[in-house]
Every structure is written in structure tokens, then in C-alpha cells.
């Protein structure tokens, strides 16, 4: 992949080099020769020598200067970078046509678990329901589908929460609770957002089995289950802390924990 100096600066999150290239007149939307990757794509989905796919399991643990990347983002957007720009990875010259055709910066930021960039893109108006090209091997290409399918780290859960708050769809045919079967700790987050299964799981894990027993996924089963569990936890902790905390404060602590517990 032939890169211009501005592409290298964006890929490496090098703010000084990026500002230098912009000052020289480099376009903030300059595409790479074969893949059509813009500086924002490289900033959000690459680091030195690695792409979003070669680092997909890193879950944002790489030695990434995220603060500098965020500053690079604002420098590019301030210079006119298009946050909605698609790459052209499905071009005939591409070695892997269809792999992630017409991804936007948000897709790459989600896969790389770059929470600050996901938040900045959403704040700037990125479409959280933008899909990639039909037939792309990466699946539907919806940002939320990518987030759910690639892991369940704390940073990925943050990305999912950001997408959901911004209006990401949870029950499209290509995105439902079925997609989270390898990452069950994501079930509560998605269920609270109204997600359900397209097909009832044949062998639900213990957590899902409790929800089914409480009424199922399509009715009030999840709400019934959460209400019963909170009541049970309050019944344990309110007497234990009665000498130092009023019951209402204990309930608030339990509620806070409940909303932030990944899986229970």
C-alpha cells in the first residue's frame, strides 16, 4: 500500500507530522492509491505496521497514544476531513476484494476499541447505522455488529454503549442477540437496549435460561429477571449496612453496580 506523508502521519498518530503536512497543503481527504483509504481511516484503524484486522484481538491494549490520536482527529476534521468517507477496499486492484469494502472511520475505530475516537466521531455526526458494501466478507458492516462480534473487553463495552446511546439499531436481521453468543457478557447491555433473539437459543447458558424462566426475551422476561435480582441483592445488603447507610442509599449503590456489571 503506497502511502503519502499525510497517510503515514495519520496512521502513526503523529500530530507534529500531521500538522506539518496539512500546513504544506496536503489534502485531509487524500486517498491511498489502491485501497482508497483516507487519513481518517488510517488514524482510526491502523497503527505503525498493523491494520484493524491484524490487531483485532488487541482490544486497544497496544502502546497507542490515544490522546495524540484524538488531537490528530480534531486537526484533520478542522482541515476539512470527511467523517463519512468510505474506503475503496473493494476496488479491482485490491488484494482482498470485499474484505471491508466501503468502511467509514467509525467502523475502524470500533474494531480497534478506540473509545475516544468513537465518541468524537459520533459527536461530529457519524452515522452509527452506516453499513458497508453489500456482499463484503466482514458481514453486515454495521458498527454495532462489528463491536459485538469482535470481543467483550471493557473498552469494547464502552464502544457499544456509545453506539447504543447514539441510536444504533439492535434488532435488524443482520444484528440481534444471536451475534453475541461468543461474548455472553454483552447480553445484559444489549437486552437493556431492547435486543432479542431471532431464534430462541437451543442450549441457552445459565444466565439466558433464567431470563427464559422469568418470561422470555420478547416480553417482560428480562425486566422481571432484573427486578427480582435487584430485590434479592437489596434484601442481602440493606440489613448488613443498616447501621451506616440508609436503605435508599444502599439501593442506589446496588442500582449503580447492576447497571455496570457486565454479566450476572
UniProtKB/TrEMBL annotation:
Top-level taxonomy: Eukaryota, Sar, Stramenopiles, Ochrophyta, Pelagophyceae
ANK repeats: 101-133
Keyword Transferase in record: no
Name of the protein: Ankyrin repeat protein
Keyword tags: ANK repeat, Repeat
Superkingdom as given in the UniProt entry: Eukaryota
NAD listed as a keyword: no
PANTHER family: ANKYRIN REPEAT AND SOCS BOX PROTEIN 2, MYOTROPHIN
Gene3D superfamilies, alphabetized: Ankyrin repeat-containing domain
A family per Pfam: Ank
